[in-house]
Structure formats: structure tokens, C-alpha cells
Amino acid sequence: MKKILVDTDVILDFFFDRKPFSENSTIILNLCENKIIEGYVTPVIINNIYYLLRRNAKHEKVIEKLKLLLTILNVLKMDKSTIEKALNSDFKDFEDALQNFSAVNFGEIEAIITRNIKDYKRSEIGVLTPESFVNLING
User: Fold this and answer.
1) Whole-number Å distance between alpha carbons of 7 and 29
2) How many domains does the chain fold into?
3) Is residue 44 helix, strand or coil?
4) CATH of the domain at 130
5) What pTM, to 2 d.p., does this model score?
6) Which tens digits make up the pLDDT trace of 32-80?
7) Can you give the residue range of the structural domain that contains 47?
8) Which residue among 7, 22, 74, 99 is buried most deeply as judged by most CB within 10 Å?
9) pLDDT tens for residues 93-105?
10) Local confidence band at 138 (pLDDT 50, 70, 90 cut-offs)
């Protein structure tokens, strides 16, 4: 089964129904929910989603959405090694470096799915937009 890291922007496209991006985000999350692919996030992604959803909704509602999200997505570990690799990397965006090295350390992630491909140009893992990933899956 294909294992992917789903970046913050992809999940926010789904939650905020940001057209036209939400269509592919919905497909990706449905693939995860139906166990066709395994989706992963990091603690940082969950934190960012909480923070951004909290701007428009009460704490309890956001927690409910995050609990539902975690029924279909797994969480990668983030430890000192991950942070040190991110700090010592050539990534321009520290947060993206954290996501990348969480995926690298896990060792089974085949692709990072994000709309911010340029931020992951130093990744040793394949990086795809949601649209490209959906097209690849649909063959």
C-alpha cells in the first residue's frame, strides 16, 4: 500500500473547501479513509491545522474535526534526530524541513503531497501536488 505524507495545505483545502483544490484533497482523504493508501501527518501539521481552524471555530469543534481526521491518517514521530536534521539542512523553510525529515526517518513514505512543491526541492522523497498524485493513482 502506498504511504504518503499529506501536508498542511492539502488538509486545509479540504476543511475550508478551497476551490478548485478541495476536489483533489477530498479524493486523497477518501483514499486514506478507504484504506487504498496510507496517509500520514506530523504533530506539527496537526498543530498548524488546529491553529488555523481555531480562527473560525470553537475549540471543541476543532478538536472534534481533528479526532475524525486521525481516524483516517496516521501520525509520524518527530524526535530530536528529526529536529537536528531539519536544523542542519539546506531547507529554506524550517517547518517543511521538519515534515520532510519525519518522513525520511520513518523510511516508508513514498511521496509528500503538497501544493508547495518548491519548499521541498531538497527532499530525497518524491514530492507531488495533489492533482499530480490523483492523476498518478487514477493511471
Assistant:
1) 12
2) 1
3) helix
4) 3.40.50.1010
5) 0.94
6) 999 999 999 999 999 999 999 999 999 999 999 999 999 999 999 999 9
7) 2-138
8) 99
9) 999 999 999 999 9
10) confident
- C-alpha cell read off for 118: 518548491
| Burial bucket for residue 97 (CB in 10 Å: 0-12, 13-18, 19+) | buried
From CA 44, how far away is CA 96, in angstroms rounded? 10
What's 57's DSSP letter?
A: S
* Span 81-94, pLDDT tens digits: 999 999 999 999 99
Place of cell 520532510: 100
Which pLDDT value is given to residue 102? 98
Instruction: Tell me the three cell numbers of residue 98.
Output: 521538519
Q: What is the 3-state secondary structure (H, E, C) of 71-131?
A: CCEEECCCCHHHHHHHHCCCCCCHHHHHHHHHHHHHCCCCEEECCCHHHHCCCCCEEECHH
CB atoms under 10 Å from CB of 121, counted, come to 11
Name residue 112's beta-bridge partners.
5, 127
